[in-house]
Write a structure and sequence with these properties.
The radius of gyration is 15 Å and the shape is globular. The chain contains two helices and four strands; from the N terminus they run E-H-H-E-E-E. Strands 1-4-3-2 form a four-stranded mixed beta sheet. The protein has a single domain, classed as 2-Layer Sandwich (YaeB-like fold), CATH 3.30.2310. The N and C termini lie far apart (about 40 Å). It is of the alpha+beta class and about 110 residues long. The N terminus is likely disordered.
Amino acid sequence: MQHDSRLKMPSNLSLHVSDEAIDDLVEIDRFTERNWGRHKADEYVESLQSAFNDLCQFPSIGRWRKGIPRGMRIWTAKRHLIFYRAVDTELQIVRVIHERQDISQIKLN
């Protein structure tokens, strides 16, 4: 069996969600409930939380891209971009932004 250096190994980092990301999740929940009902809002937020857990296990699956701070990565979950960084033994969720938002106008620190 040949070694593949691209293999993603689980890491099980602890999760920290920033105050800004919590505000983002509250707004996502409200918007989804207003437009599609409570059940869909619960499902959608749970899917984002599931993505957070996946990132804790596999933090290198996200990508860096021009315009975001070094060390930060982006992962797409449903119609949202999760901005995060892995620091020591912690995965920090920085923001959760809709894919259509202009990220140059978003505070990412």
